[in-house]
């Protein structure tokens, strides 16, 4: 059944290069491949959610700088609707430069994120959640996200956070969250271990919590019960965006089953994505969108 999702956060232009090695100081390296796509945690998650034939809206800051046409073209290709909260912005959108190494699939990223394009909560309409079934927040537009989280909670719309890293303001949003899906780099204040992260998030009355660890197993706390989910073993080409893809797939699968089942299916999709260069090739190879049973 088709669902509608609202994805709130960062919209960037990603310039991705595949190289044999990272360059040394003052060294020029010729890339073996490259890709130019829209990027950002919420953006890649939105593309993934749309991949499953869901109706998808991405909300953030884009503006009217000439290079935004590249972002719009990519997202239009993947049927993601953009709700731009600062259409008259003339400054360029955030641009990320990314190097992926051929041997390991590891990546290095340089980006300013949304630090220069924050938007006010006053720009959030009370009608923004009309016909929305799920909300994902990546933490890069905190004031707007808090307003949306409060509205979603009042309408009993489930809220997922992409906790890639701790960002100031998350402490206000967490009490409204239903699903906290965090990376191993997500450490709230005064938390120094994953056990303390689980304890902190549980204290915010979040009943469904998971911590992803790359190729290592996912740790979760589901309604007070701890567990682990193994990650499928694949031939890794590129890990870029795998976590974002995981979040978008989770938002799709959570309607079809239990929390742990959704985590397992999302992990399968994310693992498959690591077999392709860039963040879009998985969605362009013509495979059946539902890879959960592979």
TrEMBL record:
In what residue span(s) does the Carbohydrate kinase PfkB domain sit?
8-281
Pfam families recorded for this chain? PfkB
Among InterPro entries, the record links this protein to:
Ketohexokinase-related, PfkB_dom, Ribokinase-like
Top-level taxon: Bacteria
Annotated PANTHER family:
KETOHEXOKINASE, PHOSPHOTRANSFERASE SYSTEM TRANSPORT PROTEIN
The protein in question is named PfkB
Q: Per the UniProt entry, what species is this protein from, by scientific name? A: Trichodesmium erythraeum (strain IMS101)
């Amino acid at each position: 059944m088709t669902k509608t999702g609202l994805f709130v956060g960062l919209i960037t232009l990603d310039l991705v290069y595949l190289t044999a090695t990272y360059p040394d100081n003052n060294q020029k390296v010729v890339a073996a491949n490259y890709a130019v796509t829209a990027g950002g945690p919420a953006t890649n998650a939105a593309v993934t959610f749309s991949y499953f034939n869901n109706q998808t809206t991405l909300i953030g800051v884009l503006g009217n700088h000439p290079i935004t046409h590249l972002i719009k073209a990519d997202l239009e290709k993947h049927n993601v609707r953009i709700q731009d909260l600062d259409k008259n912005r003339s400054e360029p959108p955030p641009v990320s430069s990314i190097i992926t190494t051929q041997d390991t699939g590891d990546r290095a990223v340089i980006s300013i994120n949304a630090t220069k394009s924050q938007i006010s909560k006053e720009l959030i309409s009370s009608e923004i959640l009309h016909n929305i079934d799920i909300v994902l927040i990546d933490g890069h537009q905190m004031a707007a996200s808090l307003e949306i989280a409060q509205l979603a909670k009042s309408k009993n719309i489930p809220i997922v956070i992409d906790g890639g890293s701790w960002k100031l303001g998350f402490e206000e949003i967490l009490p409204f969250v239903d699903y906290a899906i965090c990376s191993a780099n997500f450490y709230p204040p005064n938390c120094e271990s994953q056990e303390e992260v689980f304890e902190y998030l549980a204290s915010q009355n979040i009943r469904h919590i998971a911590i992803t660890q790359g190729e290592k197993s996912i740790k979760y706390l589901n309604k007070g019960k701890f567990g682990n989910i193994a990650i499928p073993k694949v031939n890794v080409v590129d890990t870029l965006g795998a976590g974002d893809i995981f979040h978008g797939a989770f938002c799709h699968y959570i309607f079809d089953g239990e929390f742990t089942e959704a985590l397992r299916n999302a992990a399968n999709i994310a693992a498959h994505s690591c077999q392709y260069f860039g963040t879009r090739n998985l969605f362009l190879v013509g495979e059946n969108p539902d890879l959960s049973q592979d």
